[in-house]
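Hi everyone, sorry if this is the wrong subforum. Our group has a chain we'd like a structural model of before ordering constructs, and none of us has done structure prediction before. Sequence below.
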Amino acid sequence: MRLLQTPHTRRQALFAGLAVVGALAGAATWKFHSSDAGHGTAGQALPEDVCVVAPPTPFDPAAGQRLEAPRAIPVDARCPVCGMYPARSPEWAAQAIFANGDAHFFDSPLSLFQYLANVGQYSAGRTAQELVARYVTDTETGEWIAAQTAMYVEGSSARGPMRAGNLPAFASAGAAQRFTGRRGGRVIAFDGVDPTLLERLAPGRSAAHRTHPSTQNSIF
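Answer:
Right subforum, don't worry. Here is the predicted structure as tokens:
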């Protein structure tokens, strides 16, 4: 038996079809373009189907600076770990530079350490051995300082871009100690940031980072 379609039933079928297409489009948008999920709850892991679009920033020879020198943060640069925009919180920012001049910018020292612990996870085909420089922002002066010589404060009341303890950095142990007198926490060196600490500061986000930055996949 053949069912007759009235104008009303045809409209219903059309609307139903559009609803299905819209739902599928929404799912695709979430899967490929929801990088801003990094702006959510502090320490919350990104969903596995989220693709953070964070290409490296190439070196510009016309800038008149050494390839390995710290650079200004591009407004559109995104952190390859969480998807945030480091230029929006420069007082917490960090960066890492590869031997070919490519640079990645991070929203905080915490994200930089997560990146260093497993470079290949965030930059396919690359390793930590290719890095020629790593910098963090001095909390006191706002200047770039070498990440491996900086001192960090863990457990203070300071809250970074992800609204969690993001390891504020200092050029000297004295400056870091003065900070703990005001905000609490303890002073640790670069090598003191281990996988256990990363997991505690960002539960779930560091689950795959079981290699300490000073071991096999590292140049430290």
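For your construct planning: Strands lie at 94-98, 103-106, 131-137, 144-146, 151-154, 169-170, 186-189. Residues 47-201 form one domain.
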